[in-house]
Write a structure and sequence with these properties.
The protein has about 130 residues and is α+β, with helices and mostly antiparallel strands. Helix content is about 45%, strand content about 15%. It contains 5 helices and 4 strands, in the order ααββαααββ.
């Protein structure tokens, strides 16, 4: 699971923050609950896992597991690491857009700090993905 989390952070999230054209095209082509909306990457955790696993498979010679156990480990890695601390170093953060008791149905947003001036973004400290 560490491999998918590292790929997410170093390739997907960082690429989105830096407006990498390849990442933006891949997001646009993805058919799932992951999209660019108002210059933010909006996603559910299952869709993010599916997207990261697909991208990792396409860009690696390694076998990538994208099943339920892989997803649960991926989700645990997201919550167990200092995701937002790393993102803040790149000028970004993940916030909860729409919370649900079932974490699989919650929606999250990856925002660049420069976009936080948007009046639709709460001024209070947002809930963060750990």
């Amino acid at each position: 699971m560490a491999e998918l989390y590292a790929y997410l952070m170093n390739r997907i999230f960082r690429g989105f923050v830096e407006r990498d054209a390849e990442i933006l095209r891949a997001v646009e082509a993805f058919d799932g609950d992951l999209r660019v909306d108002d210059d933010a990457l909006v996603f559910t955790l299952p869709a993010l896992h599916q997207f990261v696993a697909r991208c990792c498979k396409e860009n690696s010679d390694r076998r990538v597991d994208d099943g339920r156990d892989s997803y649960l480990g991926f989700r645990k890695a997201l919550y167990g690491n200092s995701t937002n601390r790393a993102l803040r170093a790149w000028g970004a953060r993940v916030v909860v857009e729409s919370a649900n008791k079932d974490h699989d149905l919650s929606t999250y947003k990856l925002l660049r700090d420069e976009d936080l001036e948007d009046p639709r973004v709460p001024k209070e400290p947002p809930k963060t993905v750990r």
